Amino acid sequence: MIYLKTEEEISLMREANQLVGKTLAEVAKYIKPGVTTLELDRVADTFIRDHGATPAFLGYGGFPNSICASVNEYVVHGIPSAKQVLKDGDIISVDCGTKLNGFTGDSAYTFAVGEISSEVRALLKTTKESLYKGIEQAIPGNHVGNIGHAVQTYCEQRGYHVVRELVGHGIGHDMHEAPEVPNYGRNGVGAILRVGMCICIEPMINLGSKNVVFESDGWTVRTKTRKPSAHFEHCIAIREGKAEILSSFDYIHEVLGEREF
């Protein structure tokens, strides 16, 4: 069932999602060669708790940490580890969630570690741009398929590959609500978008091929070719006219400035 949110509920969701954006920005301050992904997890966990919220990912379905930290060929759901040390030229997708006042925030951003190749920089740029192409289609009367079609078309025309096994989702009190929001599809297909729906749009885009492998830890997903993958996510509310982005990358941009990617 799809739950439509009231203005009060959307306001609470905005607070939870803004905190996610601030948490990702705090994590961004520590992303550099020599840092472990477990250190980044501790930064996020402390920041979230210091701001009166709880990490939405910790314990969710048994997940053991407060962020997902997915490096290079790892698409999503990477488990932070003291053994995984970032190095120059890596990229890392940090997916983060908060629980605040009974509502969930969820957003993700792929960061460059030091100097990355022009090929990978172009992947990040295209993936991030495709997120906003999808958001443009998130208006009342359109279908979920319109969002996926916009993301898929934008990325595939530029030679990139859209992961099929993993999708965006509705969000509210729970992290994952109906409907599912694929990053591929056809216009006019899928759930109809209505005012008050809150969804997460999250392109997961690969170099090499669209195929992925689910690792034996039960969480981590990587590209089959072991080529890099990028991941960006916003939480939005469907409004009259255009979507409202409840999460924010502005705090990240303030930290990174020209070092974005």
Walk me through what this model shows.
The protein is of the alpha+beta class. The protein is built from five helices and 15 strands. The chain has helices at residues 7-28, 37-50, 118-136, 144-156, 250-256; strands at residues 54-55, 67-71, 74-76, 91-100, 103-112, 161-162, 168-170, 177-181, 198-201, 204-206, 212-214, 221-223, 229-231, 234-237, 244-245. The strands form four sheets. The chain has a five-stranded antiparallel sheet with strand order 8-7-9-14-15. Strands 1, 2, 4 and 5 form a four-stranded antiparallel sheet that branches. Strand 7 (168-170) and strand 8 form a beta hairpin. Helix 1 crosses helix 2. The longest helix is centred in the first third of the chain and has 22 residues, at 7-28. The model has no long low-confidence stretch (mean pLDDT 98).
Q: Detail the poorly predicted runs.
A: none
Q: How much helical structure, as a percent, in the residues?
A: 25-40%
Instruction: Please state how the strands of the largest beta sheet are arranged side by side.
Output: 8-7-9-14-15
Supply the helix-strand structural class. Answer: alpha+beta
Radius of gyration: 17 Å
